[in-house]
Design goal:
Three copies of one chain form a homotrimer. By secondary structure, the first copy, chain A, is an alpha+beta fold. The first copy, chain A, has a single domain, classed as Sandwich (Jelly Rolls), CATH 2.60.120. Helices cover about 25% and strands about 35% of the residues of chain A. A five-stranded antiparallel sheet of chain A has the order 1-8-3-5-6, covered by helices on one side. A three-stranded antiparallel sheet of chain A has the order 2-7-4. The longest helix of chain A has 14 residues. The radius of gyration of chain A is 16 Å and the shape is elongated. The model of chain A has no long low-confidence stretch (mean pLDDT about 100). Chains in contact: A-B, A-C, B-C. Chains A and B meet through strand 4, helix 2 and strand 5 of A and strand 3, helix 3 and strand 8 of B.
C-alpha cells in the first residue's frame, strides 16, 4: 500500500471565492504513483470548503448569492460566535458546501464524471489557508 | 489490496426523484470479494447526489418540498447559470444533499446502521446518468 | 493492510446537542496501530451527523438557531414523515451538517488543521445512538 500527502496553499483576495484545484490534485496523484485507490481532498480550515461542481462563472455567482441568502454575513452581531470575529457565516456556508471530497483513482487517473471539477471554496479569505491531499492505494 | 469499480446507470423520469440503490451497492461489494475496506459511492454528475437516509415516502416528499424552498427551481431566470440551461437549482440541491458517501466494509458486508439506506438523488432527470462505486480493501 | 472498527455510543439528553469526539477518534486510532491511512467516522443513525468544525460554544448556539431556521421542528404536522414520529426536521438538519467525515492518518496521527475538531451532532436525542469509526491503512 502506498500513501502520499501534499498540502496546497491558497490566498484568496477578498472574503469569498472559488478556485478550481483539479489540476493540482491531478499533479499530486501523478507524484504519488498510485494507480488504484482513493484520494481525500479536504480543507484544513473550518471556514473553507472543498467540493465538486461545475467550472462555470454564472453558477459561481449563483452560489455566492444563494449562500449569502441561507447564511448572511450581515448583521455580524447576529451571531454569538462573532466576539472579536466576524466569520460565523463562513462556518455555516462551509457546512452547506462541505469540508471534503473523496475521489476514486482508476488506472492512475482521477475517476471523475465529464463535468466534475474539484474546487476550493473560500468563505473567510484574505489570508493563507491550506488544503490537504491524501492519497491511498497502490 | 483489492480494488473494484462499477458504474450504476439511472434514468429518472421527470425532473427529480430518489432511488434506493443499497442492494446494487451490496451486489458490487459481493462482486469485489472485499471483506474489509471502504466503498465510495458518488454521483458522476453535478446535478445529482448520493446520500444516506431513510427509505420512507413521507420523508422523501418532505425533502422535495424542503429543497424546493431552500433552492427553488422557479423563476428559472433568477439564476445566471441558466443561459441555455434551466438546472441551476439542481446544482444547489445537490450541495445540500451531498455528492458522495463512504461506507465501511466489515466482514464482507456494508457496515450500515439499522435504518441507513443509500440513495441516488436526481435533481435534473429525464436522461441517463451514472453513479460510481469504487471499492478498496482486501 | 490493517483495518480496525470501533463503535462510539452517545446518549445526548434533550433533542439536540453537539459532542466533541476528537479524543475518542484519536484513541481508536492508537488502538488500531495504523500509521498511514484513512479513518471514516460516520453516524449510524439518520437523524444525527458527524462533522468537523470549531469547538466554540457561541458557534454551536449559532448552528442551533440557524438549523432551526432552515429546517424548523415546528409545526411537527408540517412534515408528512411525522406520522407517529416528530423527527422529520432532524433528517433535514442532518443533511446540512453531513453524515460522515473522512480524515487522513499521517505518521500515526489524525491529520487535522489547527482548529479542526470532530463532532457528533445529535438532532433527535434522548436515547442511545452510535457512531462508527473505521480505520484503514498500515
Amino acid at each position: 500500500m502506498k500513501s502520499y500527502r501534499k498540502e496546497l496553499w491558497f490566498n484568496v483576495p477578498g472574503r469569498r471565492g472559488f478556485v478550481n484545484i483539479t489540476s493540482q490534485v491531478r499533479e499530486a496523484l501523478r507524484e504519488s504513483g498510485v494507480r488504484e485507490g482513493l484520494v481525500l481532498v479536504n480543507a484544513m480550515h473550518i471556514t473553507a470548503s472543498v467540493f465538486i461542481n461545475d467550472d462555470e462563472s454564472g453558477l459561481h455567482h449563483d452560489y455566492e448569492v444563494w449562500l449569502e441568502k441561507l447564511a448572511p454575513h450581515d448583521p455580524v452581531s447576529g451571531y454569538r460566535h462573532n466576539v472579536g470575529e466576524d466569520n460565523a457565516d463562513a462556518h455555516m456556508k462551509r457546512q452547506i458546501m462541505g469540508r471534503e471530497v473523496v475521489v476514486a483513482i482508476t488506472e492512475g487517473e482521477l475517476d471523475l464524471g465529464t463535468w466534475e471539477r474539484i474546487f476550493y471554496g473560500e468563505f473567510d479569505g484574505g489570508r493563507r489557508k491550506r488544503v490537504l491531499v491524501k492519497i491511498l492505494g497502490e
